[in-house]
Amino acid sequence: MKHLPLVLLLCIPLLGLTQASNLGNWLLYFGNKQLNNQLNWHHEVQYRSYNAVDDLEQLLLRTGIGYNLTENNNNILLGYGYILSQNYLAGEADKVTVHEHRIFQQFITRQTIGRVSVQHRYRFEQRFIESNFKLRFRYFLSLNVPLNHPTVIDKTLYLSAYNEIFLNTTGNPFDRNRLYGGVGYRLSKTLRLELGYLNQFLANTSRDQLNVISFVNF
Q1: Which of 206, 210, 145 is nearest to 14 (CA)?
Q2: How far does CA 151 lie from the centroid of its chain?
Q3: 47: which of 63, 81, 99, 118 lies 20 to 30 Å off by Cα?
Q4: Domain, as residue range, for 26
Q5: For the segment 171-180, what is each residue's pLDDT rounded down to a tens digit?
Q6: Angstrom distance (rounded) from CA 145 to CA 159
Q7: Burial letters for 32-50: b for 16+ Cβ neighbours within 10 Å, e otherwise?
Q8: Is the dihedral of CA 123, 124, 126, 132 positive or negative?
């Protein structure tokens, strides 16, 4: 965690954004602890705001235990998430608070095509939203391209992009789609930082978010 001050420094410019901005902001932390050659502990914190940092949209806490099917390329994981959402009522300034507990299973597979690192993630969620129960599938495809080295090693600047689609099992199958593009820098084997722009397209609307992301492996 010796790089924590750098993570905080990256977030400082967000404080200068106007509170009236329509551009939302997500601050994201992803951690991974390798327990042994096969088991890993995943954990993450996501603070999502309607504006710069002061208007909470969602707080997401997620964790899980993963198992490597192969040394580096294939991982299955069983996880749990808690999500606190504060949603504005239509046409009003008031919010409604929603609590969600989520169990999920996922499979991640990775491959390299030339200089491009490719990741596929398949996730199945069981969502307990207040008194409702829902099921949802998610497919995530990401690409990382190093700029100043042939591969992503220490002190590498890279481009990052992903698309993720969410599908419901009942009602309207389409839930949402997220399209992201950004630039990242790997300081060391332990820490990567990214700054990017995300468009979230829902059934009847869309939103844009600035993303500040830290990835910590220890």
Answers
A1: 210
A2: 23
A3: 118
A4: 4-217
A5: 999 999 999 9
A6: 5
A7: eeeeeeeebebebebbbbb
A8: positive
Confidence of residue 15 (pLDDT cuts 50, 70, 90): very low
Residue 100's closest CA among 126, 130, 77, 73? 130
> Rounded to an integer, what distance in angstroms lies between the CA atom of residue 179 and that of residue 118?
15
Closest alpha carbon to 44 in 74, 3, 80: 80
Q: How far apart are CA 149 and CA 215, in angstroms?
A: 19
**Sign of the CA dihedral with 99 first, then 107, 156, and 41 last:** positive
Q: Which H or E run includes 11? A: helix 4-11
Q: What is the tens place of the pLDDT at every residue in 145-183? A: 999 999 999 999 999 999 999 999 999 999 999 999 999
The domain total for the chain is 1
CATH number at residue 92: 2.40.160
Kindly give the pairing relationship between strand 191-202 and strand 206-217: antiparallel
Token pair 């992201």 is at which residue?
180
Q: What is the DSSP letter of 18?
A: -
Determine how many CB atoms are found less than 10 A away from the CB of residue 11: 14
CA-to-CA distance for 158 and 92, rounded, in angstroms?
42
Rounded distance between C-alpha atoms, residue 125 and residue 207, angstroms: 23
CB contact at 8 A, 89 and 56: no
What Å distances lie between residue 49 and 20, 135, 162, 177, 206, CA to CA? 12, 25, 21, 18, 15
